[in-house]
Amino acid sequence: MAPTPDPNSVGGGAKQDEAPVKVPSKDPKKKDEKKEEDLSEEDLELKQNLELYVERVQDPNPELQRDALERMRLIGTEGDIGSWGHEYVRNLAGEIAQEYTKRQSEEAPIDDLMDLVQQIVAFHMKHNAETEAVDLLMDVEDLDLLLEHVDKTNFKRTCNYLTSAAKYLPGPDDMLVLDISYMIYMKFEEYPNALQIALFLDNTQYVKQVFTSCADLLRKKQFCYMIARHGITFDLDDEMVADDDDREALQDIVNNTKLSEGFLTLARDIEVMEAKTPEDIYKAHLLDGRASSGASVDSARQNLAATFVNAFVNAGFGQDKLMTVPSDSTTGSSGNWLFKNKEHGKTSAAASLGMIQLWDVDAGLAQLDKYFHSNDNPIIAGALLGVGIVNCGIKNDCDPALALLGDYIDKEDSSVRIGAIMGLGIAYAGSQNDQIRSKLSPILNDAKAPLDVIAFASLSLGMIYVGSCNEEVAQSIIFALMDRSEAELGDALTRFLPLGLGLLYLGKQESVEATAEVSKTFNEKIRKYCDMTLLSCAYAGTGNVLKVQDLLAQCGEHLEKGDIHQGPAVLGLAMVAMSEELGIDMEIRSLERMLQYGEQNIRRAVPLALGLLCISNPKVTVVDTLSRLSHDTDSEVAMAAIISLGLIGAGTNNARIAGMLRNLSSYYYKDASLLFCVRIAQGLVHMGKGLMTLTPFHSERFLLSPTALAGIVTLLHACLDMKPIILGKYHYVLYFLVLAMQPRMMLTVDKDLKPLSVPVRVGQAVDVVGQAGRPKTITGFQTHSTPVLLAAGERAELATDKYIPLSPILEGFIILKENPDYREE
């Protein structure tokens, strides 16, 4: 028997006198020696090499082991690698990735490696190891190979993994990965998923391709519902839908004309049609005596708060007890409530009518019409804004909003102008309508226009061209910023100019760089503010770690009092990190640190950032943090925290937050400003009587609606300086939230688009990416009949086989078709 090898025998260059380890042979007799003589020189060399490799494989030095194994594989027989077993193939894949990187740096040929990759990928795809195949192909930068190897059994799991991995990849790899999954979905005619990826990539060509590739009209209707929910303006042409009548019907769905009807179906089903008054929300009777006496404090401010609460709570229901009361009834006319508000308060009161009639354009315009004949400018301004709100997210062929508001843009009175400008911004958000651009752009460069009109014009243009990177609009806003005097740059409303500019690049990453360079030439008062705003908007929802680090570095500086750019940097952290759960949790931790160590202006922005991270998703830890901050000694921090409590509870009717806000209303009963914030938050928590959400994400948090995010971010920027804007005369900025308001429902309809009630299971969504077998996608479910409400993090699935849903993600409007294979038991 050969002696045990000494650990230093090879590679250490030391003791070479021990006998080398021989490959064990059965019978070392003369027959064997004779065989050795027969071997040719090449074979002999191979035999000696192999003996050396076997010896090295047993060496304790891991580098030598690896080297030997690699050589054995590359000079070994070209056969079926699968016969060596899974573990071997998996190790080999890992080593190929390293070898590939090494050869790339040395610019050595890689053909032999790629042959092996082909075999390994084929093996993995056959044996349910799609994730490992994808990982290997990402390492060797050849994802196109996937298209050859996916089949009907594994394409869904493969694409699932690709789309989840895209969130964690640096650009441009993330887009490449999504491109591949789009192609795979198209190959297997899984059109709804392909459409989602097309919307995510913001690629109109891909969206068209989905329509032209699919021949089934019913499925096209489902695509239209998906596009409508995403909130982009999209026109169908005769290539996509040949028949004129069909095309008109489909365009109606894309234009969201059925949204109001669907929402009211849900409301009737849940039996919440009864209008609510602000008192029903405040529930003052549950508090001790002192709070109720607080009604006498600054009653115009209280009435204004009640206007907003009433608008948010009854939004979309078409009836309330303050504004839509018939004028001949004994309770008094709606005009009475309007005149309980002071000057600019009337603007918000008149506009609240638009909120109550939300999405129902015809009824809304009929109700608002009477205010256009008023002699009171704030009321006309409110009516104009109301028209914009009613049309929010609803497209209409005859463009009523443009027809009504267009004439008021150049009026004398600046409040009327702002009403019309803001109305257009809300009604046409995301539409990239050039007609409106030609009306609004001249205002930006008009030397006589007041600053507030210019600020709102910039904001509305940002909304209308959100994420479009439109050069001309960008130019106009840049010139408007350069023309501002020192005094104007110190004004709170000037913040809206950089924000309008940032919205043009929302989520568009590198496209912002040219504009960011130009912003370095601005006056130093606004330069950094502009920089932070552009950076945060451009990378919003991307989860880009490097940008998070850049923004954190800005937040870490201890600055003079006058610097205001850290506010948008803190909001930017939330905007970038909000795209996936892991980023959100890490961000919440960073924000906790900032509260401890940050300067005052950072502490004021932290609650708002928390509000954005968990919007309409009241996480217990965040609720506790905000509850603590709502009693902060700095009133600005307390106000931001209170508004954020409203945002994270928005539309959830969360009892815990509602209780906290009630207690805060009695705690701050003497402070009109803080009490106003508490009331607004109460209105938000009960928004749409608990049937709505503000989250800009949909389709199981995969898609981010740009217009919704634009509305939320605008409000948060306004909240960075509460006193002059929200507590001043521009409180109607709160109505920008309407851009993000959506019913949090799932409504099933039949092939004629009539509501159809079926049983569904609703439970907490489970992440099943890359798991073996067919794991359950929801846990802790309850079975209800549609229509149903979906809370944050919940998912629905059909509880019957009688119907087949036309979209894999059950949210919003879902068309069901009858299952031909279904048999009654």
UniProtKB/TrEMBL annotation:
| Region annotated Disordered, chain positions | 1-43
Record carries keyword NAD: no
Q: Which residues form the signal peptide?
A: none
Q: Name one Pfam family in it.
A: PC_rep
GO function term, MF aspect, one: enzyme regulator activity
InterPro entries the UniProt entry points to: 26S_Psome_Rpn1, ARM-like, ARM-type_fold, Proteasome/cyclosome_rpt, RPN1_C, RPN1_N
Q: Which domain of life is it from?
A: Eukaryota
Family membership, please give it.
Answer: Belongs to the proteasome subunit S2 family.
**This protein's name:** 26S proteasome non-ATPase regulatory subunit 2 homolog
Protein's organism: Thlaspi arvense
